[in-house]
Design brief:
With about 120 residues, the protein is mostly helical. The chain is about 60% helix and about 5% strand. It has one domain (about 5-120).
């Protein structure tokens, strides 16, 4: 299995963060860009919930889908909401995502029993 580039992962992360900033602005009326600690915590919470739910249920977030990435468990399917929320929370702490194995699995992926792969669309 070929590892996914850090650049592609970063693109997905930036898209997901931008979506969270916009979602927080609509739902909680935070500033764009976020101002102060309150706004930052709200955006972080929205990011964790949005990405956690989407990855847990579908196997990809908006950013991952646009970047052609998918998160899967050992069985090849989505990892479920609890594991995805754990994974996303650890990702939001940054350090677990920076410490990687030779296969480019971060500590957040190891803790959740997941891996990031390139999305393969079904052929007709």
């Amino acid at each position: 299995m070929q590892s996914v580039s850090l650049g592609r992962r970063l693109v997905a992360l930036v898209i997901d963060w931008f979506v969270a900033v916009l979602s927080a602005a609509v739902v909680a009326q935070t500033a764009v860009p976020p101002e102060g600690l309150r706004d930052s915590f709200i955006v972080s919470g929205v990011f964790i919930v949005e990405v956690g739910l989407l990855v847990g249920l579908l196997g990809f977030s908006i950013g991952k889908r646009l970047a052609g990435l998918r998160v899967e468990g050992h069985d090849g399917g989505p990892i479920g909401v609890p594991r995805a929320l754990l994974r996303t929370f650890l990702l939001s702490l940054v350090i677990p995502a920076l410490v990687m194995t030779d296969e480019r699995r971060g500590l957040h992926d190891l803790a959740a029993g997941s891996r990031v792969i390139r999305f393969q669309s079904a052929s007709p």
